User: Fold this.
Amino acid sequence: MAEKFHFVPNDLATLADQYDVVVIGSGAAGMTSAVQAHELGLKPVILEKMPKIGGNTNRASSGMNAAETEVQLNHHIVDSYEDFYADTYKGGGEKNNTELLKYFTEHSALAIDWLADHGIILDDLTITGGMSTMRTHRPSSMAPIGGFLVTELLKQVAQEKIPLYTDVKVTDLIQAADDTVTGVKVTTATGEKTIKAGAVVLATGGFGANQALLTKYRQDLKGYNTTNQPGATGDGIELAQTIGANLVDMDQVQVHPTVQQDTDHAYLIGEAVRGEGAILVNKNGARFVNELDTRKNVTAAIDALSGTGAYLIFDQGIRDRVKAVEFYDHIGLVKTADTIAELAQTTGLDADTLTAAVTKWNTAVDGHQDADFKRTTGMDRAIVKAPFFSIHIAPAVHYTMGGVSINHLTQVLTPAKQVINGLFAAGEVVGGLHGNNRIGGNSIAETVIFGRQAGQQVFKYLQK
Assistant:
C-alpha cells in the first residue's frame, strides 16, 4: 500500500511582506493557479483561512469533465467540444456566459493533459446527469476525485516549495491610487499584516455554507441543509464587491438531489452512483424520475415527494465501479441485503413494488430502452449482482452558480465591464459559467481550466 502523503503548512513566522502573486484559497483552483504561476517563474503564496487545506474540492466525488481527450479515445468514446458546449449550455438553461463556456469546453482536454504531465492521471470514465456521453474523467482507482486531486496538487506544491499558510484570513484587498490591486490585508493568530503583491487571485469558493448570504438571494432556501465545508462563506465575493467588482447570477443556487441527511452531517452521494447504474425510488419502492436528468429536474422530482426523500437502489456490480460507496458504508449510510425483497424490508419499502421496479429496470437495461422515464445514459449494468444496497437521500444546498464577474482571461470586471487591474478569479467564486444549473463534473473541470488560466494571465500581466 502506498505511503500516506502528509503535508505540513508553512510556519506563520515565515510569512513574507511581498510576493509576486497572492492566491486566496487552497482548493483545486488556488493550487492549480499557484503551481502554474510558479512554473512560469513567479513567486506565489497560497493563503487559506481554514485550518484544513482543500476547501470544497475535498468534497467533490464524481470526476472532471473534458472532451476530445486521449482517455476518451482509449475507451472508444468519440466526443467533441461542440457537444460538450451544447450539453452544458442546455443543462444551464441556456443562461451560461458563452465567452466563459467556449473557453472552458475548448481547454478541457488540455487541462487533463496538464494534470497528466504532473503525474495526476485521470484515465477512467463515468457519466453524470445532463451529459450525452462519457466525459467525466477520474482516477482508475475510482477514488473520489476531490480528495485525490487535493493530495496530488499538494504534492506539487510541496515539491516546488510553494509557500502555503493556513489560518490566514484575508480581510481587505489593497488598491493603488489608480484602483490597481496591489496586495492584501490579513489577520492571523499573531495579528494583522499587510502583504504587497503584483497580483491577487481569488480562489475562495462559493457561499453555500453562508445561510445569511444564501437567504439574501434565495429566501426559499432558508433552513436547507448544505453539503459545503464550513469555510464556503463567500469571502472572496464580498472582498471583490467591496472594491467595485460586478456580481452575476447570485440567485442561481444548485440544490444537489442525492444527499444523505439522517446523520449529524450531510453527506453528498456522488452522481457516479447513478451514472454507473443506480436507480431512485420513492417511499413505496417505485421509480419516479429519469435519474440522470439535470440536478435541477431530479431535485424537483424528489421535492414533489412531500418531504419523504428518496432511496438509491444498486448492487455489488455498481458498487465495484464507485469506490466512494466504501466510505458511505463505513460511516453507516448504506443498508444491505441478499435479495431485493429483503432490501425492501430493511429499508422500509414495499417489497413487491421494489421488486417490480428493479425487474422492469433490468429489462430496460437489457434492451437499452427506458419506456417509463426515457433514461438513455448510465445503463451499462443491471441491478442483478448480490448483495443489494440502498441509501436514503434528500436534496441539500450544494453549489452556488453566482459570483464574481470575469472575462475568459480570468480578469475581474466592474459592472461597466472594465477590468480591475491586478485582480483575477477562478473556481466557484466566479459566476456565469454554469447558467442556472451546474452539470456534475464541471466544477472540478472549472477549477483546473481556469486555475491554469489565472496563473498564465497573472504571468502575462506582470510581464507588462
About this structure: Residues 100 and 106 are 10 Å apart (CA to CA). The two ends are 48 Å apart (CA to CA).
